[in-house]
Amino acid sequence: MDYIVLDVETANPNYASICQVGLIDVRGGHVVDTQSILINPEDFFDPFNISIHGITEERVRGAPTFRDVHADLLSRLGQRVAIHHGPFDRVAFTRASDKYGLQPLLPIWLDNQSVVRRTWPDFARSGYGLKNLCRHFDFAFSHHDALEDARVTELIFRRALAESGTTLPDWLVRSKLPISAATVGQAGNPQGRFHGQTIVFTGDMGVPRSEAAGIAAKLGFDVLESVNKKVTLLVVGLQDLSRLAGYEKSSKQRKAETLREAGHDIEIVSDSDFWAMIPSSMRPPQRPVRQAQTARGTKHLAVEISLESLFSDAELEEMFGVLLNDELG
After folding, report:
1. Cα 263 off chain centre by
2. How many helices (H) and strands (E) does the chain have?
3. Are 301 and 269 in contact (CB under 8 A)?
4. Quick one: the chain helix, strand, coil %, rounded to 5?
5. Distance in angstroms (rounded) separating the CA atoms of residues 264 and 256
6. What is the value of pTM for the model shown?
7. Which has more pLDDT, 141 or 310?
8. More confident position, 164 or 30
9. Alpha-carbon distance 24 to 201, whole Å?
10. Which of 36, 65, 68, 119 is the most buried (most CB within 10 A)?
11. CA separation (Å) from 232 to 236, 260, 268?
């Protein structure tokens, strides 16, 4: 899992007046380099901007200009995924490049605000600024220093990866979908076989999480984003250990196990067991072939609750009606 996180500060309201760049380089899921670069914007410093970030004309006297650092930035960003929190930073790089007539920086941009809004429903409409997010997640930081802002952006993005179970490549697609289309939480089909049960997913399901959620909802499951006392089934997909903060299991699985120990009726199954529950006509086509892996603490339920082992084709067609006919056709 490789990406670079960046943040900028500007000298005045003109986005081209970049006076600081902060960079966090992540390779193989680990931070391998951090860098703070002071830049002479060759422009005036607005007192309001100074009051925010504390950078003055004196501090950048003798510092390189954006023209001076452009070649290094172009080389470092290349075609890598560049994480930024909000549109400001991306626009600033574009404006600064235009100012000096330089080649635009063209990494694969990914706005962390889009990720946050699609990972946690509480922040879907508001409250997704860095200051509020750090207060919510209890991340201590000094706001409006480019490197510090990049650091907490990386922490929040890493947490979103872990809690959403969505991979970096999938986020490049999901972040562009409307929030309503990308969300996992859905109400179950009242005519579905599993109506009355509530499901949560963790880990890689082999398809975008929203697609697995849509299938579960068609089967009658209410789909939630996180584990609580209402959940009756947790599906554990393939886990990326680099995203588990040192744990062997995701936070969702640990919480589900705690609830089980407290006497709550919640089953924990592997992703292969979940797909075995789904009629073959409803399974996503061309699922990637992966080595079978059962997360610790899961149960194999495929033989017990596979719909195809319980119902005939005629009964399945009656249950799912037009849906099944469309899938078979």
Report:
1. 32
2. 15, 9
3. yes
4. 45, 15, 40
5. 9
6. 0.59
7. 141
8. 30
9. 30
10. 119
11. 13, 10, 9
Task: List, in order of start, the domains of the chain with CATH numbers.
Answer: 3-172 (3.30.420.10), 184-328 (3.40.50.10190)
pLDDT on residue 300: 43
Coil, strand or helix: which one is 57?
A: helix
- Give the Cα separation of 156 and 139 in Å (integer): 9
Cα dihedral sign, 133-137-141-142: positive
Asked whether the beta carbons of 275 and 308 are under 8 A apart, the reply is: no
Structure tokens given for 217: 């909802």
Residue that wins the pLDDT comparison between 316 and 5: 5
Confidence of residue 304 (pLDDT cuts 50, 70, 90): very low
Spatial separation of the C-alpha atoms in residues 229 and 264, rounded to whole Å: 7
DSSP character string of 11-48: SSSSTT-EEEEEEEEEETTEEEEEEEEE-B-SSPPPHH
- Residues 67-96: tens digit of each pLDDT: 999 999 999 999 999 999 998 999 999 999
